[in-house]
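Fold Annotation — chain and its backbone
Next Lines — sequence and tokenised fold

***
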Amino acid sequence: MDKKYLRQNLQNSLTNIFHKSYLKKACAGILICGLLAAGGTWYHHTQKQIEHAQLLQARTTMIEAQANQNNVALLDLSNIRSLTAQAIGIDENAITFREISLSEKKPYPNNEHEKMDSEGKGHAAKKELKESPSPEDYANLPAEQAVSSVPAFQPVYKVACRANKIRYSLYIDAITGKILHSNVGKNK
């Protein structure tokens, strides 16, 4: 008799706790929390996109100003789009351009001073100098070494686009239109 009484008492308690009206209120609360979390995530993502676009625009404005100071004419966006289409081999209208941004090409480090670790990331080798170089050391250099073959200012367009469910990433010289680097990846 005690077992039946305990079982009935437990069943009545559970029925009172998980009553339909309580379950409806709990589901409504969970739904509201989920909607608030989704809205907050969307807002945060939108703010990050706006911040990224502002940074790209600021970098583009800065590089355009540097180009004007150096009396360098940059290719316009329509030329960059057509060069991208030619490089990919697809009609320009079939390409979805995600980003076309202007940046400055950084010189690659010399391979002899570069060491690769196990993950493939490069780390510059530490080189000890016996003494710091003096201005006379630079004056004694041959003329070929004094003048670098790489221009001091080399603007580059980074193009990220998609076509036929494939991602493309290209780096195009903003002055000559030469394709400096390209990469093809699977569309996610």
